[in-house]
Amino acid sequence: MNPRTVLVIGATGYFGGRLVPRLLQSGYRVRATARSAAKLSCRPWTGHSLLEPMEADVLDLDSTRRAFAGCQAAFYLARSTNAHSKGVEETDWMAAQNVATAAAEAGLERIVCLLRLEGDEMRPSGDRCLSSREIIGVFRAAKVPATFLRVPMVLGSGNASFEILRYLSERLPVMITPRWTRTRIQPIAVRNVLAYLEGCLEHDEVVGQTYDIGGPDVLTFEDLIETYCEVAEISRRHMMPVPFFAPRLSAYWIHLFTPVPMPLSRCMVEALYSGAVCSDNRIRSIIPQRLLHCREAIQLALKRIEQTQVETCWTDVGALIPPEWVSCGDAGYGGGTILECGYRIRAQAAPEEVWEPVVRIGGRTGWYYGRFLWRLRGLLDRIMGGVDLDRGRRHPRELYSGDALDFWRVLEVDPPRRLILLAEMKVPGEAVLEFTIHELNGGQTELRQVARFLPKGLWGIIYWYGLYPFHLWIFRGMLRSIAGAVGKPLRRGPERFRSKGQQSCDST
After folding, report:
1. Which one has a higher pLDDT value, 35 or 450?
2. Half-sphere exposure of 273 (CA within 13 A, CB side)
3. I want to staple 45 with a disulfide (CB 3.0 to 4.6 A). Which of 21, 139, 260, 378 is the partner?
């Protein structure tokens, strides 16, 4: 067992969620931090004897200081470039400042930062993403013993750049390819990235250095599309090159045909435009490993997806912050009137039998009823810049708090009793969808489905009541279809009911 305690900032993110179990297996004591304790608590490695979970927010200097206390090494993997909110550049700048300050005060032996590899060509104006050079400057100004790994496009199941490649290749037989698709890039497999990250803990010579980490292939995004089509055994795509760059248009085009949101798409487009090719290969001799070729990385990623063994996904990143009114209840909440629509059924079945189709909702299973209307709602959301249904879910049968579920986010999952989803689609207000299961006498189980909505302004009220007839029809049909999926006799319902809500918040 390694006596050092290693801090992982961003432990529930794409790279952090895969690095933590790797470090635990190697015998490190790991302090895993995330902004949401609920997201940490349901990870499969949370109960490990060498793990110390801790809630911390890099935007809060005091909590960041507490996270660094007593640690000898750290990984900084938390970036906000997949956020849907504005101000990504300012957020990343503040986070880097807080982490550098806390690391310097803690007297850390080393901190390893994973950054985006960018070329020397100036990026277009209006970029919302903080550059890697600026982040490096923050840590060096604080005199932190940092190692910077600059990574180009990553090929791995659940990675945003791989999802862009996958969806564009599978959905577009004919593509208009802007100039950025013909710049040279050097993709790397996610397992090689993780090996470099862990290897930095064992080599003192990497402290204070900046390294570019890439795979053995240098090619273009157009070449990657052709390789993907060959590996996935789909017909070759026809490409129509155009001379312009148009980052905003490209990001919107990517958003229309993939689940990746525009802010993240634009950051990736601009990074690829500048050219993401390693300028040196020094780290290959320091941390030797077999680097996967692009074809191998794509094959492995597709195999993971097919076997539903995607450990982490780009949608995992982000805070899990339930709206206050969800826990306050509608009776005593002072922030506005909460509108709701509830249905319930009773089935001759055990709670576990009723839970099974509920926990599989969304993704490939769908929403059990009114599929066309769900798809139409998703299409409208995508046109408006929302997340759409194509975001899917990480696993077809497992749900964790914080998981993305189509255009919802899992707020709470308590099998086999409760599932609460928070809407992340474009709506004039805040909405949750709750499923609760109650065991009754005589071997019966009651399933309740309640939609709650806190409207914002007049448009929120118009939105709710304008769609209210559809809500009644869809929610009643959903419960009837879920009962059919249970496969046991339906004793009662679907019927409308009014939930009692929860206790109001303490006004103090």
Report:
1. 450
2. 23
3. 21
Instruction: Please tell me the distance from the alpha carbon of residue 16 to that of residue 3, in angstroms, as a whole number.
Output: 21
Looking at the chain, which residues constitute the CATH 3.40.50.720 domain(s)? Answer: 5-316
- Burial group, residue 303, by CB count within 10 angstroms (0-12, 13-18, 19+): exposed
Tell me the whole-structure pTM to 2 decimals.
0.82
Tokens of 24: 């635990």
Amino acid at 215: G
Residue 421: strand, helix, or coil? strand
DSSP secondary structure letter of residue 307: T
* Most distant CA atoms of the chain, gap in Å: 71
Per-residue pLDDT of 461-475, as tens digits, reads 999 999 888 889 999
d(CA 308, CA 433): 25
Question: DSSP letters of 36-90?
Answer: -HHHHHTSTTTT-TTEEEEE--TTSHHHHHHHHTT-SEEEE----TT-SSS-HHH
Enter the CATH code of domain 5-316: 3.40.50.720
Domain ranges in the chain with CATH number 3.30.530.20: 324-496
CATH of domain 324-496: 3.30.530.20
